[in-house]
TrEMBL record:
It comes from the Bacteria. InterPro entries: Fungal_SecMetab_SDRs, NAD(P)-bd_dom_sf, SDR_fam. This is SDR family NAD(P)-dependent oxidoreductase. SUPFAM superfamilies: NAD(P)-binding Rossmann-fold domains.
Length: 240
């Protein structure tokens, strides 16, 4: 069974990222918890260390990964960054609304950040047993796309799923006990989902704490043979 003593959460300021940190604080009081975000309002203290960094700065990512692993190899990396809308830039309802800027922005956040984290953190992960997980979205599934729309978000999450799968194949050769997975956290109340949740039945929207618990349940049950998979919040597998 995995022992989680050295934990990294990227996107620690987000609704799900911060709820996951809180859950780790409550359940893993002995663990070192490293929280990474582009801006960190909270000071470090106790078993929590905060890092503020530009997540596209590979030199900084590398230095941070190295420094986090100095006292112990990393047991868990959860990447909880992501974007759906920003500054009036909303998901596309039709082809006419696509812009290069929107596509590039969503790919750089949703696809590039998680795979850069995989590149720089996996070399420092625990060879005995560890796990790398990134939050994706069910709408990134090509076979599940029945409604259309949301071009940039869907495509950036499909790309993320492919990057995770490709990384899993490579990492399996050297880190046999480190599954690389993607997790759909469900529909969760957060800044990201806020404009779209109003028409939903509230019973279908998780609070961040419930979602963090689901994410944790998947992480702790994941086996090395699961590497490359995309899981939904309830543990079911999502087809690419
Ligand atoms: N909420 C949902 O219903 C839902 C559903 C399916 C999938 N997901 C996925 O779950 C993940 C977390 O979502 P959430 O609901 O917790 O969203 P959230 O509360 O909006 O948090 C998003 C996180 O991403 C970070 N981020 C955004 N743009 C960034 C950038 N350019 N550089 C660095 N960090 C950036 C934010 O940092 P700042 O705090 O600095 O902005 C924040 O830490 C995302 O990948 C999302 O796609 C969410």
């Amino acid at each position: 069974m995995n022992v989680f003593k050295n934990i990294v959460i990227v996107g620690s300021t987000g609704a799900i990222g911060s709820a996951f940190i809180q859950l780790m604080r409550e359940t893993h009081s002995e663990a070192m918890i490293h929280c990474i975000a582009r801006s960190n309002p909270n000071p470090s203290g106790g078993n929590i260390t905060n890092y503020t960094l530009d997540l596209y700065d590979e030199e900084l990512l590398e230095k941070t990964a190295q420094s986090i692993s100095e006292s112990a190899p990393i047991d868990l990396v959860l990447v909880a960054t992501g974007i759906l809308h920003e500054d009036g830039m909303m998901p596309e309802k039709s082809l006419k609304e696509i812009t290069a800027d929107k596509l590039i922005k969503l790919f750089t956040v949703n696809s590039v950040i998680p795979i850069l984290c995989a590149k720089h953190f996996t070399p420092y992960m625990n060879k005995e047993s560890s796990i790398f997980a990134a939050l994706t979205a069910r709408v990134g599934s090509i076979s599940d796309n029945k409604l259309g729309g949301w071009y940039s978000y869907r495509a950036s999450k499909s790309a993320l799923n492919m990057l995770i799968k490709t990384c899993a194949i490579e990492i399996q050769r050297t880190l046999k006990n480190t599954p690389i997975i993607a997790i759909h956290p469900g529909t969760v109340s957060s800044k990201l989902s806020e404009p779209f949740n109003q028409h939903l039945d509230p019973s279908h929207v998780f609070d961040p704490q419930t979602s963090a618990q689901h994410v944790w349940d998947i992480i702790r049950k994941t086996q090395p043979s699961d590497t490359g998979k995309v899981f939904a919040w309830d543990g079911s597998e999502i087809n690419p």
